[in-house]
Structure formats: C-alpha cells, structure tokens
C-alpha cells in the first residue's frame, strides 16, 4: 500500500514523511501491506526485528506500539511506549501511547499528565494527530468502565469539541451513551462547564478553561484556589472547584467544595445543585439507604412449597411473558411479587402505607425446580435489611421447615427506602389499582410533605420547607426523586408538592442559570410559558440529549402553541416523542389524540418534513384498538374508518418513502387481510379470532359453495415496486 510522502510522519516528529522518514518508506509500505492483508502478527515480528537493528526510528516505534495493542500484549505495549518516550520525549504519538499504557495499568493521574504533555507538543508543532484524539477516547472509555462518568464525559467532550470538531462521530456516539446512562444520577452525567458565569469572573473562567482543555486540571484547580484565598465567599468559585475535583476523581474533595458553595448560596439554584451533588457523592447522603439482599433457600418438599406459594395471599403470581422466564428444560419457573399486604385489601392498605413511607413490594420470589446439580429452591431478590426477619418467617411457612437451609445470602445492591416506596407505588398501582391512580396521587400530595427523612431529622419535609436553613434540603430531596424515578405520575405529584410547599425559585434567575449551565435537572422547576422562543428551543434540545421524556411532555403544549415560530423539525420531534409514549402507555385511548395527530401530519406536509413515523405510530395505535378483545364494539367501529383511510393513504403516498416504505411493502398483504378481518368481525360473519388465524394453502383446501368459510376473493391491489 503506497504511503503519501507528504503526509505527517506517523512517529509524531512534526515533519512530512519525505523529510523525516524518507529512507524508511519501503519499510512503512511493507508494514501497511501486511496489516491490510490481516498479517498483523507477521508485521509485529518484522517491526521488532527492524527496531533491534536501528531503534532510532520514531515511525517504526509508532507501528510497534499500535501492533502490540492490536495483539492484546499489554506488558509489551507498556515497555514499547516507555522506550518510545525515552527516545523521543517530544513526540505526541509517543506520549499518547504512554497515556494508553498508563491507563491500562490504572494509573489515571499519570495518564492525564501524559495527555497534557501530548497537547503541548501538538500545539508546539502546530498539528494535532488523530492518534492523540484516539488516546483521549481510550482514556475516557477506561474511566467509564470504572464508573467515573463525570471524568469520562469531560475527556470525551474535550476530545471531540476541542481537538476533533470535524470528525468526532465515534466520540459523540460514546458521549451519547454516557448521557443516557440511567444508572447514573442525572447531575453526574452532564456536559462539563466551569460554573463561572458572572461577568466579574470572566478572566478566571478564561484561565480555567485554557487549562482544562489541555488536561491540566491540577493547574486549573490551583488558579481557583488562589482566587478563593482573596475571595472566599464566592459560591461560583467553590462550585468550579467541585467540578475540577470531580473530573480528577477526587470525590471527597468535590463534595466538600460543593457543600461550601451550598452554604454560601442558600436560596438560589446554584446552591441547590451544589448541595444535591455533594449529597450524591457522599455515601448514603440522604440517610435512608439500606442493603438489599439476595436469598436462596433449599426446598425439601417441592409439591408442598408450590402449593404454599400459590395459596399465600401476600404473593401475586406473575405469568411468564417471554421464553427467558423458562428454565433450561423449557419449563416455566413460577414467579411472584411478595406484597406487604394481602392482595384482597391491597388498595386500602396501600393508601394507609403512604402516610408513613413503606415500600408495598417486599421482594421478588422465584421458585426453581430441581436440576441435575442443584436442589429445588426459592430465590428472593430485593429483600431489605428491615424486612429480612419478616421474609424469613414467610419462607419457613413456604418450605415447611423451622430451620431454613440457606444456599446463598448476599448483598446485591443498596437503595433508598423512600425511592423504593415510590417506585413500588408506581408499578403496583398500574397492576392492581384499576384506574384508581388519581386517588393515590391525591394521597401522595397530602402525605409527602409529612414524611420524615433521616437527613432532615427531626423535621418533616413541610417543616424543612419553612426553615431558611433547610429549604434547599427540601428542594434537593424532591429533585433527587424526580431524577431517579422518571415516571409521569410521580413527576406530577412532586410538582404539586413543590408548589404546595412554595419551593419555587425566581423564574428569571432560574432561566439565566439554565442558560449558563445547561443543567437539565432544574428544567423541572421552570415555567415553560416564561421562556423565550430561543430558550424554549434550547431547553427541548437539552431534554432530547438526556432523554428526559416525561419532562419533555410538560413542554409539549407550549411547543405546539408556538409551532409557527419555532423550528419545524423541533416541533415534529417533540410531538413524535409524545405520540410514541401515548401509543405505548395509553393505546386504548388512541382515538382521543387522533384529530391532533392528523393536524400534526398536515403541519409536516406544509413544511416538507418526513413524517412516516407518525403514520407508523397511528397504525400501531389503530391495530391495538381493533385487535383488542377488551375494546368495545362501538370504539372499534369508530377506529375502522381511520384504519382503512390510513391504508389507502400509505399505498398512494408512502410506498417509496425511505422512512416507512419498506414496512408498507413488506406488510401490505398482512395489513389488507387484517382490514378485511376487522371489517368482517364488526359486520357479522366470522369471528376476529377465526379471521386472523394463520392458514396454510393446499390444493384440496379450496372451500366449496357449501362451506361456511367461503368468502368472495378480495380485489387485488397493485402496489408499485411489488410483483
């Protein structure tokens, strides 16, 4: 493979290949041919031999490090990188390889310093090498694997936006994955900002930024600390210090800085965010976290135990929904929800439990049949420390043994009691309450202000909201729930509680803060009507970035109201998210939004926007109504004309649509058969079950005149692009 003589030297020496490694050109071309032919092992042996003869070749060391990494030889790569840097200390490629070797050995601080030297040498040469960006990405990926998400996001953001703005697709994909990590608190997966946005802090912000984008986090921290020596009461400087320590994986130091910021700003949004971050970084900062156990007990009498499980009023059997719930012999393993109260009086007991928060779901229970190497057993997951004694008592009743035969007992996670309570209320209510959720909402709005949180002792949430010293705590507790439980019902309850306790910020101050920090959590507490068109657009894009779908629903009415002034694509995406959530959660009510849907489709056509996804969602919603046995005949008769009209529209206008055309062509026959089946089931004749059963054609299967299944042959419809 020919190598461009006028490309930059692969060894990072700052010269063109012709002037730096001209006499190595045949060797480089030979290595490229071997690598292209998937002969990496031979290429590695060859470059090792050449370097033994002449080690003073930066370009060959660059290939040696690359091939060592490709072969998975971590130790050899570390030795090669160290020798590469020893011989060529000013080579950015050598320093990038050293950073990778150091991070693979869990030496984060040294890897960060190597990257800083990398950037310095690239700037000195006036050229930035792609392998340096790749090294930054590798360090960030290691950080993410170790759970250091804030630092990983900072490294990736710097790599993509500062040093590779034109070709950062791969880096942005990793960034998107980190932004969407639901197992990480929202406050710890935000895009990096210094937090210095006052006009009088502009010079400090500039100096800090210049250090940060060069990975000189320690120098940036020194700049902030020098400023704090003369200005110790500036909350933004303490917030910035917390961010810098967070990116250096100094979590205790970051929590200390954030806490100081919160002490200095006891009323504003900055203080609330700082207090929330400090509390999250502290282990069990909210005071109500407890261990959740995995317990496995041996079953000596399987038949007796199964009978006891199915007859226990506290257990709710969960029917299998997928093949994943079967064992290796294809037999379904019975699964249950262990409830704190009997199923028969569940709703009333749930309302009583809301006064003093107790999770209604105690544990998940699985009965596992005996296998060749294991006895029959009961597996309980999610048993809290406080419930363990009660669960063991019930397990003895199921097993019929006074002494439980313990196969395993281990802590598999920790969780907040109050968060579990609200998650359980959300899941249990949808399973048992049959539309009584409004009663639960009302009871929660009354009960939550009266709850006592360990971190607020001896105050209730309501009392803390009236205390100037504790008001921020009341805010962060509600904000913590909002980011941990993205449920529209819970979000609506918490917003009512927020209003009831008068926790609102000054809207102008809050809007300015979000403009400067792009903090998605605080968007929960902003009034959409108070935003300008530009601010509303920016907020919605931020919510898309972090996939805050329930929150995006709050802004949808305002977006639709201003759709003639906003970017049409933004309007379309906001509505598409709404329609997708609606069809998934409230499919039987699909007809209620149908006029609005048709209005949005017209809007898309007027602005030449591709809108096949809306037709697809409409199709799913209508089929769900027509195929459901629980839908009334009257509703089905209303839905059928919409379904037939949609099919006609799809075949006329969307067969060649790249977004939805393949689906129309692939499923057209099935869709027309469904239309006939739905119509027949609503006008008499065959039942819907009969009409939708798959049938296999055979030569002697033609129905005769006497057959009750005889139906007129449907008119064939020609679809462009189909035989």
Short description:
The protein has 723 residues and is an alpha+beta fold. The chain is built from 32 helices and six strands.
How would you sum up this structure, described in words?
One of its GO terms (molecular function) is isomerase activity. Keywords: Isomerase. InterPro entries: TPR-like_helical_dom_sf (IPR011990). This is Protein disulfide-isomerase-like protein. This protein is an alpha+beta fold. Among the domains are: 1-103, Serine Threonine Protein Phosphatase 5, Tetratricopeptide repeat (Alpha Horseshoe); 199-281, Serine Threonine Protein Phosphatase 5, Tetratricopeptide repeat (Alpha Horseshoe), CATH 1.25.40.10; 289-446, no CATH class; 600-723, no CATH class. It is 58% helix and 6% strand. The protein is built from 32 helices and 6 strands. It has helices spanning 17-20, 25-36, 40-53, 58-70, 74-87, 92-104, 108-125, 130-145, 149-163, 169-179, 202-212, 217-230, 235-247, 251-264, 269-281, 302-311, 346-353, 388-399, 417-432, 437-447, 461-466, 471-484, 488-500, 507-517, 533-545, 549-561, 568-585, 594-606, 612-627, 633-653, 661-682, 688-692; strands at residues 289-298, 315-318, 335-339, 361-368, 377-384, 406-416. Strand 4 (361-368) and strand 5 (377-384) form a beta hairpin. The longest helix is centred in the C-terminal third of the chain and has 22 residues, at 661-682. The protein is globular, with a radius of gyration of 32 Å.
């Amino acid at each position: 493979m020919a190598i461009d003589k006028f490309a930059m030297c692969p060894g990072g020496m700052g010269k063109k290949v012709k002037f730096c490694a001209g006499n190595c050109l045949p060797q480089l071309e030979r290595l490229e041919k071997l690598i292209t032919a998937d002969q990496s092992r031979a290429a590695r042996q060859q470059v090792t031999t050449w370097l033994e003869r002449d080690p003073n070749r930066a370009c060959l060391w660059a290939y040696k490090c690359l091939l060592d990494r490709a072969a998975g030889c971590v130790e050899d790569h570390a030795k090669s990188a160290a020798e590469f840097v020893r011989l060529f200390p000013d080579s950015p490629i050598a320093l990038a390889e050293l950073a990778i070797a150091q991070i693979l050995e869990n030496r984060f601080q040294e890897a960060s310093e190597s990257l800083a030297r990398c950037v310095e040498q690239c700037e000195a040469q006036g050229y930035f090498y792609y392998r340096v960006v790749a090294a930054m990405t590798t360090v960030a990926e290691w950080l993410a694997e170790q759970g250091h998400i804030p630092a990983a996001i900072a490294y990736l953001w710097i790599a993509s936006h500062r040093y590779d703005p034109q070709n950062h697709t791969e880096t942005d994909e990793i960034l998107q994955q980190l932004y969407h990590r639901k197992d990480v608190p929202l406050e710890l997966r935000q895009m990096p900002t210094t937090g210095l946005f006052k006009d009088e802090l502009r010079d400090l912000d500039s100096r800090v930024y210049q250090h940060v984008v060069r990975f000189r986090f320690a120098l940036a921290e020194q700049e902030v600390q020098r400023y704090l020596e003369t200005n110790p009461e500036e909350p933004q400087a303490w917030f910035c210090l917390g961010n810098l320590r967070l990116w250096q994986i100094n979590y205790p130091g970051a929590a200390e800085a954030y806490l100081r910021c919160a002490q200095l700003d006891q009323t504003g949004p900055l203080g609330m965010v700082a207090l929330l971050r400090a509390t999250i970084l502290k282990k069990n900062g909210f005071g109500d976290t407890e261990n959740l156990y995995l317990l496995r007990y041996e079953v000596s009498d399987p038949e007796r135990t199964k009978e006891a499980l199915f007859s226990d009023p506290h257990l709710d059997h969960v029917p299998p929904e997928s093949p994943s719930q079967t064992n290796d012999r294809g037999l379904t393993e019975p699964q249950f929800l262990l409830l704190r109260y009997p199923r028969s009086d569940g709703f009333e007991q749930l309302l009583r439990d809301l006064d003093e928060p107790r999770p209604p779901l105690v544990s998940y229970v699985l009965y596992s049949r005996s296998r060749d190497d294991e006895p029959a057993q009961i597996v309980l997951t999610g048993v809290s420390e406080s419930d363990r004694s009660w669960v063991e008592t019930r397990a003895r009743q199921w097993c019929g043994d006074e002494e439980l035969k313990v196969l395993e007992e281990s802590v598999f996670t920790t969780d907040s009691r109050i968060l579990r309570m609200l998650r359980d209320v959300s899941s249990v209510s949808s399973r048992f309450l049959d539309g009584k959720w409004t009663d639960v909402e009302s009871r929660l709005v009354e009960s939550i202000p009266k709850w006592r949180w360990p971190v607020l002792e001896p105050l209730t949430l309501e009392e803390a909201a009236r205390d100037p010293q504790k008001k921020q705590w009341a805010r962060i507790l509600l904000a913590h729930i909002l980011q941990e439980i993205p449920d529209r019902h819970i979000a609506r309850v918490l917003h009512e509680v927020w209003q009831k306790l008068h926790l609102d910020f000054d809207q102008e101050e809050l809007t300015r803060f979000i403009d400067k920090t792009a903090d998605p959590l605080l968007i929960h507490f902003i009034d959409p009507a108070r935003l300008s068109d530009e601010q509303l657009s920016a907020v919605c894009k931020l919510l898309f970035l972090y996939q805050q779908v329930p929150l995006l629903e709050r802004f949808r009415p305002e977006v639709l109201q201003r759709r003639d002034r906003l970017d049409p694509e933004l309007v379309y995406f906001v509505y598409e998210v709404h329609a997708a959530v609606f069809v998934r959660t409230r499919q039987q009510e699909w007809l209620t939004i149908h006029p609005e849907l048709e209005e949005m489709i017209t809007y898309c056509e007027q602005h030449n926007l591709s809108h096949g996804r809306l037709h697809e969602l409409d199709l799913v919603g209508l089929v769900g109504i027509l195929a459901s046995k629980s839908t009334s005949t009257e509703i089905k008769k209303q839905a059928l004309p919409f379904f037939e009209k949609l099919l006609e529209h799809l075949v006329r206008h969307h067969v060649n649509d790249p977004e939805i055309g393949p689906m129309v062509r692939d499923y057209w026959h099935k869709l027309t058969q469904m239309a006939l089946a739905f119509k027949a089931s609503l006008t008499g004749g065959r039942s819907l079950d009969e009409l939708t059963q798959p049938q296999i054609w055979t030569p002697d299967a033609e129905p005769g005149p006497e057959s009750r299944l005889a139906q007129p042959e449907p008119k064939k419809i020609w679809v462009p692009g189909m035989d």
